[in-house]
Amino acid sequence: MDLDTLTVLAQADVAETAGRAIGLGMGTGLAALGTGIGLGFIFGKTIEAVSRQPELRSEIQSIQWLGFALTEATVFYGFIAGLIAFFV
Amino acid sequence: MPIRALHLRAFAALLGVLLPLAAPQVAGAAEEFDPQDEFALPPWIEIDIFGIDLSINKGVAYLLIALILTCGVMIYTARRMQYRPTGKLQTVVESAYSFMRDNIAGGNMDARMAAKWFPFVATLFLFIWFSNIIGYVPLPFNTTHKVDVFGLELPSLAIYSATANLSVPLALAIVVWLSYHVEGIRAKGPIGYIRSWIPAGVPGAAVPLILGIEVLSHFVRLLSLSLRLFANILAGHLLILFMAGGLVVLMGLNLFGTLVLGVLTGVLGTVFFLFEIGLVVSLQAFIFATLAAIYLGGAVADEH
After folding, report:
1. Mean local confidence (pLDDT), B266-284
2. ipTM of the shown complex
3. CA angle, residues B214, B219, B222, in degrees to nearest 5
4. Which residue has the higher pLDDT, B22 or B218?
5. Distance from C-alpha of B142 to C-alpha of B237, rounded to nearest angstrom
6. B244 with B17: CB under 8 angstroms?
7. Chain B residues closer than 8 Å to A68 by CB
8. What secondary structure letter does DSSP report for B199?
């Protein structure tokens, strides 16, 4: 990073835009972290449950998709919050 | 092989997205491209009633198409029902019908409520499903970017979904929200309904706190129900938009870099596209209808 870039970065409006971009990226990324852990739990527990009682497979799977959609939505809450931070 | 045929069809559909996206931006520079334009809603026919903007725009057109498809497919199938189905359509609609009746409505409400609210829940499912699926079919509705076809200015093919606009899921969620409150009040009376929010065995001092949390949770339901659908579809469209050309245009690399990045993001875009039409479209329609059924069933249930 040469001096010119530093000078540009020091300007207030650029810093604000950069902050917004970091907010969007970090917010979505951290939300994705939590969602990833949650989804791992859901699918792992489904595998566990199905291997214990294979005859309940279809019932467990329908609940699994419900849990998947509910958990997956949390990443989008972070994403929307990031978009609000970025554009508003 | 049916799976391969599906992939080919999806790829052809994606190409339909890629080409028009690339076409108007080849001539223009990177600064001309604004990703928000894909979601802009310029009014086609301006209607203004007492200061309320009711203009016909792209979103209204998508809603109308979804409405026509929902009613059209179901009425068409119902009119020519056969004892032994010859076509595929009746089989598909019948299995969708039994899925909606037994899993979505029947599985989450008691028999009386399920019979009463099955049409509503099923319509929600079908309407959201059709809205989502036409969102991934390239339609010539993008009037912000025009294509020149033999001197004729035509709107370019692009993907957009009515459900990628917060107003549509919010309107649906408000209808669901009002319905389950009305149904709960009708079943238990206004005082009894609010009393049923508090679980049995809560000591008297904790009642205001629990009541506050419950009131908050009902408003959060409104928010989460609408945001879930909206954000899923919006994020899917944004991902495809960026992967199918937006990122390459915004980066403004040289020819080699554009080629490498373009091939990479093109493959990723295809994967996301298949993920969206294969899973997200049906799953979001299913989850919206299921949650509507759970809320309706929960509002009249004896125990909270």
Report:
1. 90
2. 0.73
3. 130
4. B218
5. 14
6. yes
7. 283
8. P
Q: pTM for the whole thing? A: 0.80
Tell me: the pLDDT tens digits for B112-159?
889 999 999 999 999 999 999 998 988 887 777 666 666 677 777 778
Q: Is A76's CB within 8 Å of B286's CB?
A: no
User: Residues near A81 by Cβ (< 8 Å), separated by ≥ 6?
Assistant: A27
- Which SS3 state, helix, strand or coil, does residue B41 take? coil
- Looking at per-residue pLDDT, the higher value among B38 and A60 belongs to A60
pLDDT at residue B10, as a whole number: 56
The identity of residue B295, as a single letter, is Y
CB contact under 8 A, B286 and A65: yes
Contacts of residue A66 in chain B, CB cutoff 8 Å?
Answer: 287, 290
Cα–Cα dist A52/A73, whole Å: 29
pLDDT the model gives residue B30: 41
Query: For residue B88, what are the contacts with CB-CB under 8 A and spacing of at least 6?
Result: none
Under an 8 A CB cutoff, do A69 and B231 touch? no
Torsion of CA B27, B31, B37, B38, to 10 degrees: 60
- Give the residue among B121, B294, B59 at the shortest CA–CA distance from A63: B294
**Please, are residues B100 and B128 in contact by the beta-carbon 8 Å criterion?**
no
Residue pointed to by tokens 């190409």: B15
Tell me which chain A residue has its CA closest to the CA of residue B235.
A76
Phi, psi of B53 (to 5 degrees): -80, 110
